[in-house]
Write a structure and sequence with these properties.
Length: 462
């Protein structure tokens, strides 16, 4: 077998000004949406700090404000427009403040953002993060600017990142998505699937480990197809299982997580890599979306209920102690009572540890948004949604109660936000355990679970 040829990643383009230019200024970043956006915000923060800026405590006192937007649901858009109003108040009070709006909503609706908020200095997209400093320079000298590009300029992981947690890091392995789920706007805002070179990913993880990171979360829209665009060894095939093994063997990395897999592409080789690589955690996000074959077909998900449940059973059989979370959409166009009952059946059967449950939100530009004649009345959706939440909360509680009395290795995330005397920690399967005492972020220790609630556990050190 010939060794893979590793090409260098596209590098950050030369900065117009090579030295920090905003020493002594401050920045504030507000992030909406998913882990992709959270990680992008860390990169924006990394670029701002490389330019000499420090983080401001509150939005009103910042010299530069960056709003990283999401457009996955209608309420995300509404929040954005609420935020644009707040930015105007800040700008009116201090006209020197530089306002930047980036992220998915700006990528998709650049003209709407510009028209609704002419007071914003920079409107930029998801593909040109590396340009943020030049765009701010431009706005300072020449006035407001909009720059949104359709092609990825530089693989964002080649940018510096200012991590939120010292001991834990996101690592992008793939950008974009080639699927066509009819409810989803992500391919329109993040583009087609592009995988990073495995050697670049492993080198980044090695650098992170040398910097004290013990936990990495690999990020991609559909990680199970990772690598199929790279043609390594001349073959176009997914190599996520191999990547997991390589990342999991980096010295100093104690925990590897990833998000998101896709039930249609999740195969045994990945489950085996999870089970056989000690650093890879027993945690799987396995988005169901619906339990009805008819609705799954209308969603273009590529699997049916039987295939979903088979793959879930395979994962649970191969990976002992696996915790599974899911996503469910209620009220997809055309969803009948019968379809919804099928979703409830799968939820009962699968017994997820956790579920992210959403009411269908039509996103302009998606196929599902055009199925207006089949839209389900809001009161029916609400009733179904409440039933689903109630059922899942009961199951989550039961799953958590099963852990009472057991001992887990936990990783501390530092003092809990509500109580300084309590540490927030996480088990390898990803469950939150509150532990009385002061345990610095990054510390790994044993905990016996004492009690359970639907969304967290409490325990004491053993
Ligand atoms: Fe969206 Fe489907 Fe791609 Fe996930 S797999 S990002 S839901 S199109
Ligand atoms: Fe994420 Fe929202 Fe964009 S969920 S990919 S930030 S549309």
């Amino acid at each position: 077998m010939s060794a893979p040829v590793l090409l260098p990643e596209p590098r950050l383009r030369e900065r117009a000004r090579p030295h920090p230019t905003r020493v002594g200024k401050s920045y504030y970043i507000r992030t909406f949406g998913c882990q992709m956006n959270e990680h992008d915000s860390e990169r924006i923060a990394g670029l701002f700090e490389a330019d000499g800026m420090t983080r401001a405590g509150e939005i009103e006192s910042a010299d530069v404000i960056y709003i990283n937007t999401c457009t996955i649901r209608e309420n995300a858009d509404n929040r954005l427009y609420g935020n644009l109003g707040q930015l105007k108040v800040v700008k009116d009070a201090n006209p020197e403040t530089l306002l930047v709006v980036g992220g998915c909503a700006a990528q998709k609706d650049r003209d709407v953002v510009r028209a609704r908020a002419p007071w914003v200095d920079v409107v930029m997209g998801t593909h040109n993060l590396d340009r943020v400093l030049e765009l701010i320079d431009h706005a300072e000298q020449w006035g407001p600017i909009t720059e949104v590009v359709d092609e990825l300029a530089a693989m964002p992981s080649s940018l510096p990142a200012r991590r939120e947690l010292e001991h834990s890091a996101w690592v992008t392995i793939q950008i974009g998505c080639n699927n066509t789920c009819t409810f989803c706007i992500v391919p329109a805002v993040r583009g087609v699937e592009v995988s990073r070179r495995p050697g670049d990913i492993v080198r980044e993880v090695e650098r992170l480990a040398a910097d004290g990171v013990v936990e990495v979360t690999l990020l991609g829209q559909n990680v199970d197809t990772y690598g199929r665009d790279l043609a390594i060894d001349g073959k176009r095939r997914p190599i996520f299982a191999e990547l997991l093994r390589r990342v999991g063997s980096v010295d100093g990395i104690e925990r590897v997580r990833f998000t998101s897999p896709h039930p249609n592409d999740f195969r045994e080789d990945v489950a085996l890599a999870m089970a056989e690589t000690p650093a890879v955690c027993e945690q799987l996000h396995f988005p169901l979306q619906s339990g009805s074959d008819r609705i799954l077909a209308a969603m273009h998900r590529g699997y049916n209920r039987a295939k979903y449940l088979d793959r879930l059973a395979m994962a649970r059989e191969i990976i002992p102690g696996l915790a599974v979370s899911t996503d469910v959409i209620v009220g997809f166009p055309g969803e009948t009572d019968e379809d919804f009952e099928m979703t409830m059946e799968v939820v009962e059967e699968a017994r997820f540890d956790q579920a992210f449950m959403f009411i269908f939100s039509p996103r302009p530009g998606t196929r599902a948004a055009e199925m207006t004649e089949e839209f389900v009345p809001q009161e029916i959706i609400r009733e179904r949604f409440d039933r689903l939440v109630e059922t899942q909360n009961r199951i989550s509680l039961e799953r958590n109660q099963e852990t009472v009395g057991q001992v887990f290795q936990v990783l501390s995330e530092g003092p809990s936000k509500k109580d300084e005397a309590v540490a927030t920690t996480r088990t390898r399967p990803g469950k939150v355990v509150h532990v009385e005492g002061r345990y610095p972020a990054g510390m790994i220790f044993g905990v016996r679970v004492e009690s359970a609630a639907p969304h967290h556990l409490t325990g004491h050190r053993v």
